[in-house]
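=== RUN LOG ===
request id: a7f3
mode: sequence -> structure
chains: 1
length: 188
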Amino acid sequence: MKKNNRFTLIELLVVIAVISILMAILLPAIAAVRRNAKEARARADVHAIALAIKAFDAEYNQYPTIGSGSSGVVTFSDAPGGQSIDTLIRVLACADPGLPGQLWTDAADSGNKRVIRFLELPQKYYTDRGLNDPWGNRYIVKINYGATAAELITITDFPGSTSVEVPSSVAVYSKGVPDADRGIGSWQ
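=== RESULT ===
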């Protein structure tokens, strides 16, 4: 009698069912890991930008001034009425999106007189033409140029709250996860 070395239809269906069950268990876990990784990257970015601004202040005894000078609380974003976040990032990183890997010598004209690189940018910055959070939104930076130790920065558009009082002269934040009322801030 000849021995049959093939799989039966029932055996194949059982294997497919087992693989489907395992995929159903693993896919949500993989999505959660990806979400947590994006949040960790955004948290690292906001802390790095805030630290770069504070290092600039420590080096030059003033915050970066963009344009015709600054006073009070100034918002750097892409929103109408805000200062350009890209210009602030270029001054802190001495980087120009058109010149990957090279120092941007015009930073000296914008207050970074010694052309010090306070912020390291990923290569993706040069291809995306800007520093975005993991969800594709721009980071928002608020600097209180007239701050004393007792002054706070009030943020009225932080997700998940009506307003946030930040006990610092520098606040950097991302609107965070889309459709989840929680942002990511440098003060958290």
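=== NOTES ===
The longest strand covers residues 73-77.
The chain has three helices and seven strands.
=== END ===
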